[in-house]
TrEMBL record:
Protein name: Pyridoxal phosphate-dependent acyltransferase
Gene3D superfamilies on file: Aspartate Aminotransferase, domain 1, Type I PLP-dependent aspartate aminotransferase-like (Major domain)
UniProt-listed SUPFAM superfamilies: PLP-dependent transferases
Any Pfam family the entry gives: Aminotran_1_2
Length: 395
């Protein structure tokens, strides 16, 4: 008979033996471009805090005001007694920002994919997913009863082939990330939507890493490609990356919100967001529209950092966005580089299999609007020294 202690011990032993055991680093200071990790002052290249909003005073002031006015919590699931006026006000603000007919906020980006895919897809439907889509999409599709197919990453000929080989009278859904989280490349949404429309399919975009990064005022990948008013394009994403807080959203057709309120299980069975969260999110959307310098600095920093890494001889894997991978090949090399960078005052996390392919272990860097040129030069100097010491770049 297997005991709980034995099961837990066996699982931890297996993870350690496979080199997959994780012990999270602990931040001793707020989430900023410069922070403190395990007692060490560092330049932070590990967070998703693209616009520097996580500790921004404007968001904190609005969060405090909502907390004092509306209380600490929503007190119930949204469909019973947990919908406060501020929830609906923010969703209207988000739909207006995204240029969509409706928007609904859920508890997280991960659960948003579960809720939306589970609500839309039925037996007899067809869903086609990019092979490098996020784990939340994969898990969401596992819960759906539709026929599931995969197309090769950003391969439009393969997408067309799958659609041709799988005719159905049901709903057809093509699912893609807007920005792919490990490589930093952008989905060719103009081509995807065109092919989807040719076969009468709807396009579903998880814009976790595109919202707040691409499009005018950070409206996202869908806006970047000019599809924000399209009723046959669904946007989902997170409110925890560029927007600096927590939550997920779905935006699209005017009826999408109502259907999700009635069918999305994460929405139906989870308490509404605390007022302070809603206040901070509302402030984030206001701020990015009032001040264009956040987006300007984000992209200036991104272009500079990428160019300098490439000049030093590092492989950034063709990234098109602030997500900037530095390829080390073997996981052991990436993890050792991460350890040495931390000693140099740079917080940048190594990633290996199964998060990325075995021979493409890397450090994933994310440049933010808050980084100064001094921050980036400090990080680049550390990268140069560590890269030379490990034989990754010449010198």
């Amino acid at each position: 008979m297997t005991t709980l202690h034995a099961r837990l011990n066996d699982e931890l032993t297996r993870l350690r033996s496979a080199g997959l055991h994780i012990t999270p680093r602990v931040l001793d200071a707020p989430q900023r471009a410069r922070t403190r990790v395990d007692g060490v002052d560092v330049v932070n290249l590990a967070s998703n805090n693209y616009l520097g909003f996580a500790d921004h005073p404007y968001l904190k002031e609005r969060a405090e005001a909502y907390l004092r006015t509306w209380g600490a919590g929503a007190g119930a699931v949204r469909t019973i007694a947990g919908t406060l006026k501020i929830h609906e006000d923010f969703e209207a603000q988000l739909a207006q920002f995204k240029h969509t007919g409706s928007a609904l906020v859920l508890q997280s980006g991960f659960t948003t994919n579960q809720g939306v895919l589970g609500s839309l897809l039925q037996e007899g439907d067809l869903v086609i997913s990019d092979e490098l889509n996020h784990a939340s999409i994969i898990d969401g599709l596992r819960l759906a009863k539709a026929t599931k197919k995969i197309f090769k990453h950003k391969d439009m000929a393969d997408l067309r082939r799958v659609l041709q080989e799988n005719p159905t009278d049901g709903l057809k859904l093509v699912v893609t990330d807007g920005v792919f989280s490990m490589d930093g490349d952008i989905a060719p949404l103009d081509q995807i939507v065109a092919i989807a429309r040719e076969f009468g399919a709807v396009t579903y975009v998880d814009d976790a890493h595109g919202s707040g990064v691409l499009g005018a005022q950070g409206r996202g990948t869908v806006h970047h490609f000019g599809f924000e008013h399209a009723d046959d394009v669904i946007q989902v994403g997170t409110l925890s990356k560029a927007w600096g807080v927590v939550g997920g959203y779905a935006a699209g057709d005017a009826n999408l919100r109502d259907v999700l309120i009635n069918k999305a299980r994460p929405f139906l069975f989870s308490t509404g967001h605390p007022p302070a969260v809603v206040g901070a999110l509302s402030a984030a959307l206001d701020l990015v529209q009032q001040d264009e310098s956040f987006m300007t600095r984000l992209w200036e920093n991104t272009r500079y950092f990428k160019a300098e890494l490439q000049r030093l001889g590092f492989d950034t894997f063709g990234s098109e966005t602030p997500i900037t991978p530095v390829i080390f090949g073997e996981a052991s090399a990436a993890f050792e580089a991460s350890r040495r960078l931390l000693q140099e005052g740079v917080f940048a996390v190594g990633l290996g299999f199964p998060t990325v392919p075995r021979d493409l272990a890397r450090i994933r860097n994310i440049v933010t609007a808050e980084h100064t040129r001094e921050d980036l030069d400090h990080a680049l100097g550390a990268y140069e020294r560590v890269g030379r010491a490990l034989g990754v770049v010449g010198g």
